[in-house]
Amino acid sequence: MHIKSAEFIMSNSDVAKCPNNRMPEYAFIGRSNVGKSSLINMLTNKKSLAKTSGRPGKTQLINHFLINKNWYLVDLPGYGYAKVSKSAKKTFQKFITQYFALREQLVSAFVLVDIRHKPQTIDLEFMQWLGEHAIPFSIVFTKADKLKPKAIDNHVEAYKAILLETWEDIPNYFITSSSNEAGKDAVLDYIQNINENLKII
Predict the structure, then answer these.
(1) Distance (Å, rounded) from C-alpha 169 to C-alpha 71?
(2) Which residues contact 88 (CB under 8 A, 6 or more apart)?
Protein backbone atom coordinates (compact mmCIF):
# COMPACT_ATOMS: atom_id res chain seq x y z
CA MET A 1 0.00 0.00 0.00
CA HIS A 2 1.17 3.50 -0.85
CA ILE A 3 0.08 6.18 1.59
CA LYS A 4 -1.05 9.09 -0.55
CA SER A 5 -2.71 11.10 2.22
CA ALA A 6 -2.86 11.03 6.01
CA GLU A 7 -4.80 13.68 7.87
CA PHE A 8 -5.79 14.24 11.47
CA ILE A 9 -9.56 14.20 11.88
CA MET A 10 -10.37 14.40 15.59
CA SER A 11 -9.44 13.66 19.19
CA ASN A 12 -11.97 12.83 21.85
CA SER A 13 -12.70 10.71 24.90
CA ASP A 14 -16.27 9.79 23.97
CA VAL A 15 -16.68 6.78 21.69
CA ALA A 16 -20.09 8.08 20.65
CA LYS A 17 -18.39 11.12 19.10
CA CYS A 18 -16.02 9.12 16.89
CA PRO A 19 -16.59 9.42 13.11
CA ASN A 20 -20.02 8.05 12.25
CA ASN A 21 -19.29 6.80 8.74
CA ARG A 22 -18.61 3.15 7.98
CA MET A 23 -14.95 3.35 7.00
CA PRO A 24 -12.87 0.56 8.54
CA GLU A 25 -10.63 1.36 11.48
CA TYR A 26 -7.34 -0.09 12.64
CA ALA A 27 -6.46 0.73 16.24
CA PHE A 28 -2.88 1.00 17.49
CA ILE A 29 -2.29 0.53 21.19
CA GLY A 30 0.53 -0.49 23.50
CA ARG A 31 2.25 0.06 26.78
CA SER A 32 3.43 3.60 27.36
CA ASN A 33 6.82 4.39 25.78
CA VAL A 34 6.58 1.52 23.29
CA GLY A 35 7.20 3.84 20.33
CA LYS A 36 3.63 4.05 19.07
CA SER A 37 3.72 7.62 17.78
CA SER A 38 7.01 7.01 15.98
CA LEU A 39 5.59 3.89 14.35
CA ILE A 40 2.46 5.73 13.18
CA ASN A 41 4.57 8.53 11.73
CA MET A 42 6.78 6.00 9.96
CA LEU A 43 3.82 4.12 8.48
CA THR A 44 2.18 7.30 7.19
CA ASN A 45 5.36 9.02 5.95
CA LYS A 46 4.63 12.03 8.17
CA LYS A 47 7.17 12.93 10.82
CA SER A 48 4.73 14.75 13.09
CA LEU A 49 1.32 13.25 12.35
CA ALA A 50 1.22 11.60 15.77
CA LYS A 51 2.79 13.57 18.59
CA THR A 52 5.90 12.02 20.08
CA SER A 53 7.23 12.81 23.51
CA GLY A 54 10.01 11.83 25.84
CA ARG A 55 7.35 11.56 28.52
CA PRO A 56 5.38 8.29 28.39
CA GLY A 57 1.61 8.56 28.31
CA LYS A 58 1.37 11.63 26.11
CA THR A 59 -1.59 10.21 24.17
CA GLN A 60 -4.66 10.40 26.39
CA LEU A 61 -7.42 10.62 23.80
CA ILE A 62 -8.82 8.58 20.92
CA ASN A 63 -7.13 10.06 17.85
CA HIS A 64 -8.52 9.41 14.37
CA PHE A 65 -6.37 9.83 11.26
CA LEU A 66 -7.93 9.41 7.82
CA ILE A 67 -5.63 7.45 5.52
CA ASN A 68 -6.00 7.60 1.73
CA LYS A 69 -9.50 8.94 2.36
CA ASN A 70 -10.86 5.44 2.83
CA TRP A 71 -9.77 4.03 6.20
CA TYR A 72 -8.91 5.27 9.69
CA LEU A 73 -5.78 4.72 11.69
CA VAL A 74 -6.76 5.12 15.34
CA ASP A 75 -4.15 6.10 17.91
CA LEU A 76 -5.27 4.97 21.37
CA PRO A 77 -3.84 5.88 24.79
CA GLY A 78 -1.10 3.65 26.08
CA TYR A 79 -1.80 1.35 28.98
CA GLY A 80 0.49 0.76 31.90
CA TYR A 81 3.07 3.12 33.22
CA ALA A 82 1.95 6.55 32.02
CA LYS A 83 2.80 9.23 34.58
CA VAL A 84 -0.65 10.73 34.97
CA SER A 85 -2.92 10.96 37.99
CA LYS A 86 -4.82 7.84 39.03
CA SER A 87 -8.14 9.54 38.26
CA ALA A 88 -7.00 10.53 34.77
CA LYS A 89 -5.66 7.03 34.08
CA LYS A 90 -8.92 5.46 35.28
CA THR A 91 -10.88 7.72 32.93
CA PHE A 92 -8.95 7.01 29.75
CA GLN A 93 -8.56 3.32 30.51
CA LYS A 94 -12.36 3.24 30.71
CA PHE A 95 -12.86 4.74 27.28
CA ILE A 96 -10.25 2.40 25.80
CA THR A 97 -12.47 -0.46 26.98
CA GLN A 98 -15.55 1.29 25.62
CA TYR A 99 -13.86 1.84 22.27
CA PHE A 100 -13.14 -1.87 21.82
CA ALA A 101 -16.56 -2.90 23.13
CA LEU A 102 -18.66 -0.45 21.13
CA ARG A 103 -16.81 0.54 17.97
CA GLU A 104 -18.37 -1.52 15.20
CA GLN A 105 -16.07 0.00 12.56
CA LEU A 106 -13.01 -1.56 14.21
CA VAL A 107 -11.53 -4.19 11.90
CA SER A 108 -8.38 -5.06 13.82
CA ALA A 109 -6.15 -3.87 16.61
CA PHE A 110 -2.36 -3.71 16.55
CA VAL A 111 -0.82 -4.34 19.97
CA LEU A 112 2.65 -2.82 20.11
CA VAL A 113 5.33 -4.59 22.14
CA ASP A 114 8.92 -3.45 22.74
CA ILE A 115 10.96 -6.37 21.41
CA ARG A 116 13.92 -5.51 23.65
CA HIS A 117 12.18 -6.76 26.77
CA LYS A 118 11.07 -10.16 27.97
CA PRO A 119 7.30 -10.80 27.77
CA GLN A 120 5.50 -8.36 30.06
CA THR A 121 2.49 -9.44 32.11
CA ILE A 122 0.55 -6.29 31.24
CA ASP A 123 0.93 -6.95 27.48
CA LEU A 124 -0.03 -10.60 27.83
CA GLU A 125 -3.06 -9.73 29.95
CA PHE A 126 -4.23 -7.16 27.42
CA MET A 127 -3.90 -9.67 24.57
CA GLN A 128 -5.83 -12.16 26.66
CA TRP A 129 -8.59 -9.57 27.19
CA LEU A 130 -8.79 -8.94 23.43
CA GLY A 131 -9.00 -12.67 22.79
CA GLU A 132 -11.73 -13.18 25.38
CA HIS A 133 -13.75 -10.41 23.73
CA ALA A 134 -13.19 -11.82 20.23
CA ILE A 135 -11.38 -8.70 19.03
CA PRO A 136 -8.99 -9.44 16.14
CA PHE A 137 -5.45 -8.21 16.67
CA SER A 138 -1.87 -8.50 15.53
CA ILE A 139 1.26 -8.06 17.59
CA VAL A 140 3.68 -5.40 16.39
CA PHE A 141 7.15 -5.81 17.86
CA THR A 142 8.81 -2.38 17.90
CA LYS A 143 12.40 -1.11 18.13
CA ALA A 144 13.89 -4.10 16.31
CA ASP A 145 16.86 -1.97 15.25
CA LYS A 146 18.04 -2.10 18.87
CA LEU A 147 18.73 -5.82 18.74
CA LYS A 148 20.74 -8.21 16.61
CA PRO A 149 18.81 -10.72 14.45
CA LYS A 150 19.53 -13.64 16.80
CA ALA A 151 18.26 -11.72 19.81
CA ILE A 152 15.12 -10.74 17.88
CA ASP A 153 14.43 -14.39 17.09
CA ASN A 154 14.97 -15.40 20.71
CA HIS A 155 12.61 -12.73 22.04
CA VAL A 156 9.89 -13.62 19.54
CA GLU A 157 10.22 -17.30 20.41
CA ALA A 158 9.88 -16.43 24.10
CA TYR A 159 6.58 -14.71 23.35
CA LYS A 160 5.40 -17.63 21.26
CA ALA A 161 6.18 -20.10 24.04
CA ILE A 162 4.18 -18.15 26.59
CA LEU A 163 1.24 -17.45 24.27
CA LEU A 164 0.93 -21.11 23.31
CA GLU A 165 0.28 -21.92 26.96
CA THR A 166 -3.17 -20.36 26.59
CA TRP A 167 -3.69 -19.82 22.84
CA GLU A 168 -4.28 -22.49 20.21
CA ASP A 169 -2.48 -20.44 17.57
CA ILE A 170 0.03 -17.60 17.64
CA PRO A 171 -1.55 -14.26 16.74
CA ASN A 172 -0.33 -12.65 13.54
CA TYR A 173 2.80 -10.58 14.24
CA PHE A 174 5.18 -8.07 12.66
CA ILE A 175 8.74 -7.07 13.49
CA THR A 176 9.24 -3.34 13.01
CA SER A 177 11.58 -0.42 13.50
CA SER A 178 10.63 3.22 13.12
CA SER A 179 14.29 4.07 12.59
CA ASN A 180 14.96 1.92 9.53
CA GLU A 181 11.33 1.32 8.44
CA ALA A 182 11.57 -2.43 8.96
CA GLY A 183 8.14 -4.02 8.76
CA LYS A 184 6.51 -0.99 7.18
CA ASP A 185 5.47 -2.67 3.94
CA ALA A 186 4.33 -5.80 5.76
CA VAL A 187 1.96 -3.88 8.05
CA LEU A 188 0.55 -1.71 5.27
CA ASP A 189 0.13 -4.65 2.89
CA TYR A 190 -1.71 -6.53 5.63
CA ILE A 191 -4.15 -3.65 6.01
CA GLN A 192 -4.44 -3.34 2.24
CA ASN A 193 -5.36 -7.00 1.89
CA ILE A 194 -8.06 -6.72 4.52
CA ASN A 195 -9.45 -3.58 2.90
CA GLU A 196 -9.59 -5.30 -0.46
CA ASN A 197 -11.49 -8.18 1.09
CA LEU A 198 -13.90 -5.64 2.53
CA LYS A 199 -14.29 -4.30 -1.02
CA ILE A 200 -13.66 -0.69 -0.07
CA ILE A 201 -10.90 -0.03 -2.61
Answers:
(1) 28
(2) 60
Q: Write out the chain's pLDDT in tens, 201 residues.
A: 999 999 999 998 889 999 999 899 999 999 888 999 999 999 999 988 887 544 444 457 899 999 999 999 999 987 764 454 555 445 547 778 889 999 999 999 999 999 999 998 889 988 998 998 899 999 999 999 999 999 999 999 999 999 999 999 999 999 999 999 999 999 999 999 999 999 754
**Based on the number of CB atoms within 10 Å of its own CB, is 61 exposed (0-12), middle (13-18) or buried (19 or more)?**
middle
Please tell me the distance from the alpha carbon of residue 30 to that of residue 75, in angstroms, as a whole number.
10
Position 129: which residue type? W
pTM of the predicted model as reported, rounded to 2 decimal places: 0.89
Contact 163, 127 (CB under 8 A): yes
Q: Edge-to-edge strand order for the sheet containing 6-12?
A: 6-12, 62-67, 71-75, 25-30, 106-114, 137-142, 173-175
What's the DSSP call for residue 119?
Answer: P
What ranges make up the beta strands (E) of the chain?
6-12, 25-30, 62-67, 71-75, 106-114, 137-142, 173-175
- Is residue 108 within 8 Å of residue 138, measured between CB atoms? yes
